[in-house]
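Narrative of activities, Objective 1.

The group set out to show that a structural description can be obtained from nothing but a protein's sequence at a throughput compatible with the screening campaign. Below is one input-output pair from the validation batch, recorded exactly as produced.
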Amino acid sequence: MEKINITIDGRKIKAERGEKVLGAALKNGIYIPNLCAVEEAATTPASCRLCFVEIAGRKETVTACTENVTEGMEVYTNTEEVIRLRKQAFALLMASHRVECKTCHKNKSCELQNMAKFLKVSLVPKKLKQIHKTLPLNSSHPHFSYDPGKCILCGRCVLVCHEVIKKRILNFAYRGIKTVITISPSENYECSSCLKCVNICPAGSLIPKIK
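Output recorded for this entry:
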C-alpha cells in the first residue's frame, strides 16, 4: 500500500492512501471517540456521530470514519466545535441507554464508561429526558441474549455479523424510537456462534449465556 503524509493535531504520521482518517489515527495511537466503526468492515454507518474532526481548508466538520486521507491533510481532533458536537452526540446516545453499571457484564471494561471519562461528561445526560425501551429481554439465540433497554443502536453488531462473519443473524427492525435489533433463528443462517457481535457491543446490550 502506498504511504502518504498527513498531520493530526500537529503530529506528522504516515497513512495508507485510501484509508479513513479514523483508522489512520487509531493505528498511530491517536484516540478519536467512535462507537459504530468496525475495523474489518468495508463500510461504516457513521451513525454514532462521535468521530467528528476538523480539516484545514474545510468550513464544516466531517466524520473521521467516512473521510479518506489525502496527501498533506491536516486534521484537528480537539477543537471547541469538535468537543461540543461529541458531547452532544454522546448525550443523545445515552438518553436511550439504561445505565446499570454495577450489574452489567461490561462493567469496568465498558466503552461507554471510558468515553464518558474521556469526554468529561456523565453517563446519564442531565439536560435530556431519558427514553428507555420497555421491551423484554430477547433470549431466542442459544448463546446470547439481547437487552433493548441497553442498546444504543450503534450498529456494530449488525455490521460485524453482515460484513465480517457474512451472516444475517442480526438486523435492524422498525424506525425511529421503535428501532431495535432483531435476532433471526440461528438455524436459518447457520450462525457460527463466534460471539464477535457480543464482544464488539459497547453497551452491554448483547449478553453471553454462561453454560
